[in-house]
Amino acid sequence: MSKPDLLSSLRCIMLLALVIPMSLAAQAQAIPVEVKLNAQGEYRLYRGGQEYFVKGGGGSEQWDELARIGGNSVRTWSTDNAKEMLDKAHALGLTVMMGLWMQHERHGFDYDDKPKVQAQLEYFRKIVMEVKDHPALLLWGIGNEVDLFYTNTNVWKAVNDIAKMIHEVDPNHPTSTVTAGLDPAEVKFIMQDAPEIDIYCVNTYGDIAGVRKNIAAYGWKGPYMITEWGPNGHWEVAKTRWGSPIEQTSAEKAVSYKERYENEILAANKNCMGSYVFLWGFKQETTSTWYGLFTRDGLRSEPIDELERFWSGKEPKNKAPHLTSLLIDGKAASSSIMLTAEKRYDAVSVVADPENDKLQARWQIVPESTDIKAGGDAETAPTPISGLFKDKTAQSADFRAPKTEGAYRLFFEVTDGNGHCAYGNVPFYVVPPAAGEEPARMVRFKQQEMQ
Hints:
Blueprint: H1 3-28, E1 33-37, E2 43-47, E3 50-51, E4 54-58, H2 63-68, E5 73-75, H3 82-91, E6 95-100, H4 114-131, E7 137-144, H5 155-169, E8 175-180, H6 184-193, E9 199-203, H7 209-214, E10 224-228, H8 250-266, E11 272-277, E12 300-301, H9 302-312, E13 322-328, E14 337-340, E15 344-352, E16 360-367, E17 389-392, E18 396-400, E19 406-415, E20 420-431, H10 440-450
Parallel strand pairs: 4-5, 4-11, 5-6, 6-7, 7-8, 8-9, 9-10, 10-11, 12-20, 14-20
Antiparallel strand pairs: 1-2, 2-3, 13-15, 15-18, 16-19, 17-18, 19-20
Helix pairs in contact: 4-5, 8-9
């Protein structure tokens, strides 16, 4: 062998010596996650050989706060910026349920179109190959509520093909799919057409107790998780006579979160792997406060205090204010409040802070949203009306009803100056002035109510 050939061979050997350990290190980055039956015959999730109960939040904001209060995982709905999200979570000691956003029939996707279905699978294959060895990856969420308003059940075969692909290329992470609520038909379809799914995941709100009670009876005997849960959904609550849903206050939501976490997640069926609360962040959905655990300004609401108690086992050092009641003209939201255009009214709150922090309030009147979507699709927030308030404190406000007939909400938010808030809103309907007789609109509402 000539000297140049010898040098070339030595360089190749040295390069291989560098590349092989680097390749092995990259493979070793993955922390194996698996579902196993324990000695008691219960399904449990294990990460790196240690039992792992998911204490998670769904959303892309405030992850540092989730980690601070004892949470351990976050959920994404898509692979947008997947590597960046995984790196961010890993830096905070969190894991990620990585969502693979399958297209929805309600948005026009056809699961009989085989080339498009295959293209979707190949797109996911590329993403999976790119991030499957990241140490923050916990499991794959294949599709979110693809059963919402659907008719073509071939979607479950597409789910299965994606799960099968993942099992072939990534032996270290379980697969899951997420349904909108729990229905026996979907359980049957998934068991029949998507046997590659390891964990059944459910998004549920007011009906969360139905998962614990029914999932095994519907046929699913394996592991499951609650991947969205929180307050009563806007489709599950009482409505005013003109159809506006009545939202829980932050204090009422805190009670719901506590009861649901304690009774339906911690004390749930032995096969529950944990949960992702919704929404860990802010979002306009029906109202600006309905689902977000944080305000637009990043203030944390009272339900987070309950989560901190469960996740950390400790009492929050500083707690959110507590709103006991919010009234307009002495009436609660359930009263279907009718106000006369441009007439003045009083709004009164009963609110206190556990640490007696000084409270600052914000009052707003906002037209009822007309941009109500389904399945969490993006909505546009209505613009607050200015110039209606005269005097405002944390306990009361003097305001003038809008001059245009229609549905509105009075929003109240109070902050303690330490990053915490309480909130509530009261829907009301504005009718035009009527000289000496009841407005025709009010008469019609009463007639509808009697029917």
